[in-house]
Amino acid sequence: MNQKFTRSKFLVMLLCVAFLASCGTNSALEPNIVAQEAEKAEANSNTQDHTNSGTVTADQITYDQNDAYSDWKSENPNYIELKGSTASIKGSGASVKDNVITITAAGVYVISGKLDNGQIVVEVANKGIVKLVLNEMQIHNKDSAPIYVKKAGKAIISLQDGTENMVTDGENYIFSEASEDEPNAAIFSKADLTINGTGTLRVKGNYNNGISSKDDLKILGGNIHIASADDGLMGRDKVLVKEGNIRIEAGGDGIKSTNDTDPLKGFIAIEAGRFDITAGADAIQAKTSVLITGGDFDIVSGGGSANASEKAGNMGKRSFESVESPLTAETDESESQSTKGIKASADITIKGGKFNIDSADDAIHSNNSITIAGGDISIASGDDGIHGDASIKIEGGKINITKSYEGIESALISIIDGEIYVVSKDDGINVAGGKDQSALQGRPGQNNFRSSGNNRLDIDGGYVVIDAAGDGLDANGSIYMNAGTVIVNGPMNNGNGALDYDGVFEINGGMLIAAGSSGMVQAPSEQSKQYSINMMYSQMQEAGRIVHLQDSKGNTIVTFAPQKSYQSIVISSPELKKDSSYTLYAGGTSTGNEKDGLYTNGAYQGGSKIVDFTITDSVTWLSEAGVTTGRNPMPGGPNNPGFDGNRNRPEKRKE
Prior knowledge:
By secondary structure, the chain is mainly beta. The chain contains 2 helices and 54 strands. The protein has 3 domains: about 5-50; about 65-305 and about 340-460; about 480-625, no CATH class. The protein is elongated and about 95 Å long.
């Protein structure tokens, strides 16, 4: 046990003792609340090193004044006119030999014309800045990079307004003995590379990559269209995009940063722009972190969700074991097999933007943590919609996962705000731990969950709607809900449940409605401060048949029409009070406003009374006959009203 963990645990214990001493013991629930806060604080301390590792900070996103320069005519430019197999030069600093133009001095070079099979080489000994203005230019080179920045302090490519520029290479390069495997892109730079302007640049990388920098790659504008055999845009240390209209068709990754030796590098930061990325592998991939604050993204990776690996059902097992640091651990599959939408090893943060992601593997995947604080995100995934090995925090934005194997998955999940819709073939929201070994059941790769064992789901706000063929909310740990609205249209098979947890499910606020099958039904824990009911029907109810709950004065608590067939329903609301009487109805109609099956501000009529009851416990178990004495099993299972004890209990898989 490390010292940091020991100190954190000691502080938590001191806080708990102080809290108990100051509050006394007036409520039987107080020790449970203290334990909950202690567990939450301990979980946060255990994951602190993970969630802070590699996160992009504002001081790492910098642009120099010359990155955005446009007034090149006032900078005493030199002119290079390409003429088929040679070129003419007006000015100084460049020379021509056969079909190779070599630039050896800092300055501005305006390039126009067409070079059939040649090359522009930048080799500036004093590390000066070279500005290449592409002004209606075409270059093709059949056996090397058409534009090769061999040495410079920085290279800036400016796309002149209203011009079309094209760079293409051949399928095979010829390398000198000294260069080994460089260059490997149609536009290749060993120095920092910036692209700006408003013109158009078309790049066809037939050999390998489209545009690649071994240092920083910055894009501040332009219409950039790339078709590449492997990666589209690559910056080793960082890729920064401030603006631009970027279209990429890549056999490998779309946008990529690769530095794996410096935790402060190897990241991607996007502020704005229009992105249309079709990638054979990952669409956006960072060795450390991804930060997106704006932009419009259309992403297809690995052929899209329709090209996902077949899953062998939802019976995969998880084993629990320690794992490596996120910055040193190997990815969960080889790079050639990774077909994710947005992927990072350390951290992904999304604060804005509009996304349409169709991915064969996870749509958004981090080997460590994910934070979503804004944006409009639509996802169709062949595997997980959003996956973080250590943690996922959702504090804003709109997320619509229309297709997934599992919707949202991590060891720690926190929902603070936002509008979230999930459709999943297995679990809707899955809190997991250890190593995901469901690859053995047909999934494409393993996920290492970076968990201390305190796996938990916290819901402190937001609006969540889940349509799950497996478990709706599934926790290999505990669930705590204090605010927000959660609607679960859960499984119709008895091998899963709308709610499934191993530890506790404490609900102390918010609205919860969870409808599903009856074989593995669970309700919130009895130590919850907010009251809940669990209605178990003797037979399956039709999808769309209204469940209406009202108090003895006729005030509506809930009017809800499950979107799928159901045999049990859990309702928890702040309106439920101890020692108050209620009536549950079935069927009928409502004149209220309907959203996701939930009716508000209307009159209910025409239904059939099912049961009258009075709430005396934190969880009231109901059947058509009235209040029963059923209680939650631990962990999930069919120890509830209506369960036939003579049936063989199915084994409950944990995912």
